[in-house]
Amino acid sequence: MPAKRKKNIFNVSANLYDLDERNVTLDDIPFYLEYASRVQGPVLELACGTGRVAIPITAAGHEVWGVDLSDPMLDRFRSKLAVLPSEVRERVHLLQSDMSDFNLERKFALIIIAFRSFQALTGAEKQKQCLARVREHLADDGIFIINVFRPFAMLDQSWVKEESLDWEVTDPETGILVRRTHIRKKIDLRKQIIYPELIYYLYKPDGSEEKIVEPLELKYYYEAQLRELLLANGFDIVEELGYYDRRPIIEGPELIFVCKRKSRN
Ligand SMILES: C[S@@+](CC[C@H](N)C(=O)[O-])C[C@H]1O[C@@H](n2cnc3c(N)ncnc32)[C@H](O)[C@@H]1O
Questions:
Q1: Residue boundaries of the structural domains of the chain
Q2: Smallest CA separation from ligand 1 atom 25, residue
Q3: What pLDDT digit, counting tens, does each position of 174-208 carry?
């Protein structure tokens, strides 16, 4: 039987990932830096990707561990680290692993799953295992922050849509003009899984063109569902926010839960 393809790990587009500079990928960095500044002790980012968030946290002086399943994303992370001063590089520790199955044998003051990465876990068992791993690795008074997008309404088949443009930018490293679009391919309403495809059109300085397609498979959550999942898996929720500017959860396009381990009493 052919090996099952690992999904949601940006295998064909990792080197294009950091070109995405929409507000949502800029606004969360100061938000996570602020929480890192509040804690004493190391920080763990699950599904750390290319280090978009983890590198600024490390550069601010924190010891950071990053776990990600994707070799190409971690390779990109390592190449970004390589040009940084050695004292910054030495504060970073990377592990290639599934976020629902890892053991770092240490406790963390802050654990984050940024930019909707938890949605890559589409099965209930994996979601629970991941939250159990977070609990196991969280210091007694540690903070856990998780973010998913807020569905704009009760989703139905009208979620499925033709291709539309996300952004266009010239890659400063290669001079390639990159146009990113996406197609909303399919939705499974029973399992609450969406199947978008990210599409990259590359226009190279030598005149050649390339098209790269990254199919994704993401679980979506309504606000009450994620809240219940966290409460049922050993967390107390200490803050609920709707965006990185700290607006109330009901007023924002994101669902952000700041949690602690459930107190034993
Ligand atoms: C949207 S990216 C976010 C990366 C980074 N956290 C950021 O904010 O830029 C999602 C990341 O989740 C990773 N990922 C997907 N499934 C995973 C899994 N089961 N375990 C660990 N990482 C996973 C992907 O490789 C990718 O790096």
A1: 14-150+221-261, 157-219
A2: 9
A3: 999 999 999 999 999 999 999 999 999 999 999 99
The residue whose CA has the least distance to atom 13 of ligand 1 is: 47
Written as six digits, the tokens of 229 are 């999942």
123 Cα–ligand 1 center, Å: 15
**pTM for this prediction:** 0.97
Residues with CB under 6 A from ligand 1: 8-10, 47-49, 52-53, 68-70, 73, 98-99, 114-115, 117, 120-121
* CATH of the domain spanning 157-219: 2.20.25
Q: In the CATH hierarchy, which fold is given to the domain comprising 14-150+221-261?
A: Rossmann fold (3.40.50)
Q: Give the residue whose CA is nearest to atom 4 of ligand 1.
A: 49
